[in-house]
């Protein structure tokens, strides 16, 4: 079972700036890829900023956050973010945005999920 710390996009950006590190390093810390001193400090601050420890099995976790963004964590480690304010969406694989969508419809989400699940 895989663990990660769920935070908002703004919190991820804050962590990157606070520690002067790349978004990929933040991803590695929040997804327990690295367990060094820096990763532990990043996780501690993430908890202080409202981060939630989650455990993934072979299912998908979906959150509808207060910032009007839907986040879906896929079993292969891919994160999907759908902004309900402007209809945009992003696919994150290993901490990097690999695809951006504009003007998504709810009916498009199935195709975005299929793309996310195809990533290895």
Write the layout of secondary structure elements.
Blueprint: E1 2-6, H1 9-19, H2 23-30, H3 37-48, E2 52-56, E3 61-64, E4 69-73, E5 79-83, E6 89-93, E7 96-101, H4 109-118
Antiparallel strand pairs: 1-2, 3-4, 4-5, 5-6, 6-7
Helix pairs in contact: 1-2, 2-3
Q: Compute the gyration radius: what is it?
A: 14 Å
User: What's the number of helices?
Assistant: 4
The N- to C-terminal Cα distance equals 17 Å
Give the overall shape: globular
Binned, the helix content reads 25-40%
- Major sheet description: 5 strands, antiparallel
Question: Secondary-structure element sequence?
Answer: EHHHEEEEEEH
* β-strand number: 7
Strand content: 25-35%
Strand order of the largest sheet: 3-4-5-6-7
Low-confidence stretches: none
Mean pLDDT: 91
- Pairing-aware structural class of the strands and helices? alpha+beta
What can you see in these coordinates?
- The protein has 120 residues and is an alpha+beta fold.
- 34% of the residues lie in helices and 29% in strands.
- The chain is built from four helices and seven strands, in the order βαααββββββα.
- Strands 3-4-5-6-7 form a five-stranded antiparallel β-sheet, covered by helices on one side.
- A hairpin with a 5-residue loop joins strand 4 (69-73) and strand 5 (79-83).
- Helix 2 (23-30) crosses helix 3 (37-48).
- The longest helix has 12 residues, at 37-48.
């Amino acid at each position: 079972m895989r663990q990660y710390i769920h935070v908002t996009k703004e919190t991820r950006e804050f962590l990157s700036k606070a520690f002067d590190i790349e978004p990929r390093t933040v991803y590695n810390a929040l997804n327990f890829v690295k367990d060094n001193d820096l990763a532990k400090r990043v996780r501690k601050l993430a908890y202080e900023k409202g981060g939630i420890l989650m455990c993934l099995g072979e299912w998908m976790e979906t959150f509808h956050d207060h910032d009007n963004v839907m986040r879906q964590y896929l079993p292969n480690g891919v994160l999907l973010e759908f902004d309900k304010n402007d209809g945009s969406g992003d696919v994150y694989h290993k901490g990097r945005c690999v695809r951006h969508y504009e003007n998504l419809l709810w009916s498009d989400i199935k195709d975005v999920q299929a793309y996310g699940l195809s990533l290895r």
